[in-house]
Amino acid sequence: MKVFYLPKEPQLVVASDVHVRTENDDRYKLLCQLVDEAKRVGAKTFVLNGDIFDFFFGWGRYFRLKYSRLLNSLDELAKSGTTVWFVVGNHEFGLEALERHHKFSVIPSEGRVWKGAGGISVLIAHGDLLRPDFWYNLFRAVVRSPVVNVLAWAFPQGLLDLFTLWFASTSRKKDKYRVLNHRKIIDSALMRLKDSGADMIIFGHFHHPYDESKDDGTRFLSVTSWDKPSCLVVGADGNIERVHPAD
Description:
Layout: E1 12-15, H1 26-41, E2 45-48, E3 56-57, H2 61-66, H3 68-79, E4 83-87, E5 92-93, E6 105-107, E7 112-115, E8 121-125, H4 134-143, H5 146-154, H6 157-175, H7 182-196, E9 200-203, E10 211-213, E11 219-222, E12 231-234, E13 240-243
């Protein structure tokens, strides 16, 4: 099994778009190992940047039990002194409920600015709101509405899990034919970065390894999906690297 090895005392570790489906997934086991590794090396901040699961409903005890190993590992990481963020992805719902039971912070999809040593500031956002269209915004508003959350909570959680995993698989097959407009994505990231006042943005969602620097010193980085597992790491010296697991 592959394992992650992180540099000592990194300022920031960001993973995104793991798309775990069950607690027996190899991706899930590798993600838990990454959390443990972040604790071992003394990471200052650890961020799960959305779409960690193919589906997760935080108000349902079923899902908290299903993924208790990861949630408990995040708690242990937070107890060790690491700042832990869980950014809401478009596959996660009701994550705010986790703050009632766990010690990490839930961050909206729009993201939050992280500030590290040496004056570095990074906007960390999931990315689904960089280029939303009307229909996506409408769909997002409906599925995240209080009414739908109550219905989801009342629905048998095991069946909800099966249905949403089926829906995610069907949707992903269509994504294979989706063509990304890279220029528009970068332009949208530039506007979000300018609005935030940060000098760098890290996002996910698009499953593409963006890495661009501008003449003014701003930089755009994305965390790829775990079809090929990796994470972004800001080292103690401020350098950024994309770390892949080793055999």
